[in-house]
Design goal:
The complex is a heterotrimer of chains A (182), B (301) and C (214).
Chain A lengths: L1 H13 L2 E6 L5 H8 L13 E2 L8 E5 L7 H10 L5 E5 L1 H5 L21 E3 L6 H17 L3 H11 L25
Helix pairs in contact in A: 1-5
Chain B lengths: L2 H9 L4 H22 L9 H10 L8 H24 L11 H22 L3 H32 L4 H6 L3 H18 L24 H25 L8 H25 L5 H26 L1
Chain C lengths: L6 H10 L21 E3 L9 H5 L5 E5 L3 E6 L9 H5 L5 E3 L15 E6 L15 H8 L4 H7 L3 H15 L4 H19 L23
Antiparallel strand pairs in C: 1-4, 2-3, 3-5
Helix pairs in contact in C: 6-7
Classes of the chains: A alpha/beta (182), B mainly alpha (301), C alpha+beta (214).
Chain lengths: 182, 301, 214
């Protein structure tokens, strides 16, 4: 029903919950992210809450260039977030690995590991720039055109040979399975 | 209590029709007041409602059959227990039954129990950690909580709530209310006793693995707990006068929300205590006050 | 200085005061000296590639060919440190005083600028320029002639130097012509039968014969 859809869309727009994931970041971006929770920027005015569990989140904010040790964690956590979800790459590290590009222990940039919807440039980005980036991610979440949705659609359409076809940049297992990972 | 009476109390007041908006309003008051005390703006008015709808619209995570069943049943059970407790609240002058005090106290224990079970059922490390903390705290606060209720019952020589409240008994009521007020923050999992669902510290505590509609029910149960616990305290703090029922309702709502505001203000001003420290608060100070109430109950009445 | 303020005082005071929050989408205006996205002034660019060399994050990429230089800048990779701006000898780079907006597709905001080499004053072929600052540093108060020579392309400069040296040692004009011809042949071979732009001996020997550069 159109009314329900409209209500659900409004609810998704007004209540986006965040989960922050540090994939090897220097913490500069992380500090600016939590500055958004403080009195000056106060993202709660937009209904945004920083949640403790990926199962509770709609938006995954990832900082850091995805080191070798954090790559499995990034993939696992991405799979654990229930649909619908969007991914925000915070800072220049997940976008391009910045100074760490070419390092043998770096598996980034982030779009090699999970699909990314919004990139927020900066090193670190200012809190107001982060909030603007998150607002854009909320718009993508509500519209239903997130990178994850596109990926799921593509997977549903393509006839996979052995049922486990993988595409570059989308190695993440589908959400919905509580992987037995500790 | 007649069936029609019970249904009205369950569905209308202080049941569903009142409790649902009141729950969302109280949660909003908690968040908004906390924000204002921190010089922030805080969420807009309909925030808890939108949170609820959004969670319902999330795609549920598929789980193995038994685990999925248990993880769905527990929040439903918690919500049902709280609604049952709401039905039993002695807002009006009559309509109780002997033993409804015991039933109310038992029903109020169920959400905490469900939280503990949910933490373990989710088979998450953080869920189990939160569950054990919740269990420790539950053991800690149950003592003064139940002791004060027992003191009141002993003083009034009855286990029927409405009869109990029709007698002044202020010598016993005062310390009992203090002990109960001390127990409210921990049952509501709010600072300084928020260690069970210590946000960020242990991910999300017992609810770590719950998502979508299951989480929506947990949050709803939590909101309803706010209503029933502040409501219980409001009924016990009610002045013993013959009010007509509209006035009773108004005073009940006013005291409930005032209690919610005070709890929130204290939470904004305090930090989280460790489980050991929290247990000490309840077993030392909580029990001290409750024992005072018990002694007064037996000595004076 | 120890001032003990009770938390209850603080929260009750906060209740009476206004929130300090900026309501979205208000934001604090960045300072004038804020280091934002890098922009290039192609008129000042010397195509030296120092910006690429000093860039810590690989946000600036420079690729030179015979006619000019490709300057690529990716704000998504940038650290906004300002090293490129500091080190640019031509002072062609500057940073905008605002943050860069969020974007949805990787590489969406890249800037790609082509900087053409200016033509050699003598033959017109593209040649890499020198900056005024560098000229001043190397030659001090340089005369116009020196300046002109500094801006010549490599071949013209080579020919000019040979001419000056030969003249200075009093060699004959025929030898000078022979030098011209060999340079011309060189050019014909290198450029694939492309005729030289100036006739042999077209440039007259210098009037002030003794001046032979640094």
């Amino acid at each position: 029903m159109a009314l329900f859809d409209s209500l659900i869309r409004t609810a998704r727009r007004r209540s986006p919950w965040l989960f922050h994931l540090n994939a090897g970041s220097c913490n500069g971006c992380d500090i600016e992210l939590v500055a958004c929770l403080g009195p000056r920027f106060d993202v709660e005015q937009l209904g945004i809450r920083l949640e403790g569990s990926p199962r509770h989140a709609d938006i995954i904010v990832v900082s850091g260039p995805v080191t070798r040790t954090t790559r499995p964690a990034v993939e696992t956590i991405y799979a654990q977030v229930p649909d619908p979800k969007v991914v925000v790459a915070l800072g220049s590290c997940p976008a391009s690995c910045n100074v760490f590009a070419g390092s043998p222990t770096i598996e980034g940039p982030l779009d090699r590991v999970i699909p990314v919807d919004v990139y927020v440039p900066g090193c670190p980005p200012r809190p107001d720039a982060i909030i603007a980036g998150i607002a854009e991610a909320i718009g993508i979440l509500v519209s239903g055109r997130s990178a994850h949705e596109r990926l799921t659609q593509r997977r549903a359409e393509e006839p996979a040979a052995d049922g486990r076809g993988r595409r570059p940049g989308a190695n993440a297992p589908r959400s919905g399975h509580p992987d037995g990972a500790p | 209590m007649r069936i029609v009476d019970a249904l009205l109390r369950l569905l209308i007041f202080p049941g569903l029709v009142y409790a649902l908006p009141a729950a969302w309003l109280m949660v909003w008051v908690e968040r908004k007041l906390t924000a204002r005390l921190q010089r922030r703006i805080g969420p807009p008015f309909f925030q808890p409602f939108f949170d609820f709808v959004k969670l319902l619209a999330k795609r549920p995570v598929s789980r193995p059959p038994l685990q999925g069943l248990v993880m769905t049943a527990l929040p439903i059970l918690a919500t049902a227990a709280v609604l049952g407790a709401l039905t039993l609240l002695p807002v009006f002058a009559g309509g109780g039954f002997s033993g409804d005090l015991v039933l109310l106290a038992s029903l109020l224990e169920v959400p905490a129990l469900c939280a503990v079970l949910g933490g373990f059922a989710s088979r998450s490390l953080y869920g189990e950690l939160g569950a054990t903390r919740e269990a420790v705290l539950s053991v800690a606060y149950s003592l003064p909580f139940l002791a004060s209720l027992v003191a009141l019952a002993a003083a009034a020589h009855t286990l029927e709530l409405t009869t109990l409240l029709s007698r002044p008994l202020w010598a016993v009521r005062a310390p009992a209310l203090v002990a109960l007020a001390l127990c409210l923050p921990v049952k509501l999992r709010i600072n300084p006793f928020s260690v069970a669902n210590a946000e960020q510290e242990i991910y999300a505590g017992p609810t770590t693995e719950f998502e979508g509609p299951r989480l929506a029910l947990w949050e709803l149960a939590h909101g309803l707990e706010w209503v029933v616990l502040t409501g219980l305290w409001a009924t016990l703090a009610f002045p013993v006068v013959r009010f007509a029922w509209p006035l009773r309702v108004v005073v009940f709502i006013a005291i409930s929300f005032a209690a919610a505001a005070v709890i929130t203000a204290v939470a904004a001003a305090t930090a989280r205590l460790k489980p050991v420290q929290a247990a000490r608060v309840y077993w030392q100070w909580g029990m001290l006050v409750a024992v005072v109430a018990l002694i007064l109950a037996m000595a004076l009445y | 200085m120890e001032r003990h303020v009770s938390i209850f005082t603080v929260v009750s005071r906060n209740l009476r005061r206004q929130a300090v929050t900026l309501r979205f989408p208000d934001r604090p205006t960045p300072d004038r000296a804020f280091r934002g996205s890098v922009s290039i002034d192609t008129a000042k660019c010397l195509t030296c590639g120092i910006c690429d060399y000093v860039c810590v994050s690989g946000a600036i990429g420079v690729k030179a060919d015979e006619n000019g230089m490709d300057w690529r800048y990716e704000p998504g990779r940038c650290t906004f440190c300002g090293r490129c701006v500091d080190h640019c000898p031509g002072e062609a780079l500057a940073q905008e005083a605002d943050t860069v907006r969020a974007y949805a597709r990787s590489g969406e905001l890249s800037k790609h600028v082509k900087v053409d080499y200016p033509g050699c004053p003598q033959c017109g072929r593209p040649s890499r320029p020198l900056s005024e600052r560098l000229l001043a540093k190397a030659y001090g108060e340089a005369s116009d002639e020196l300046r002109r020579r500094a801006l010549l392309c490599q071949r013209c400069r080579l020919r000019e130097a040979q001419r000056v040296l030969l003249n200075g040692r009093g060699r004959s004009a025929e030898l000078a012509t022979a030098v011209d011809r060999s340079v011309q042949a060189d050019e014909l071979g290198a450029a694939g039968a492309e005729p030289a732009n100036d006739a042999p001996g077209g440039t007259a020997p210098l009037a002030d014969g003794g001046d032979d550069g640094p």
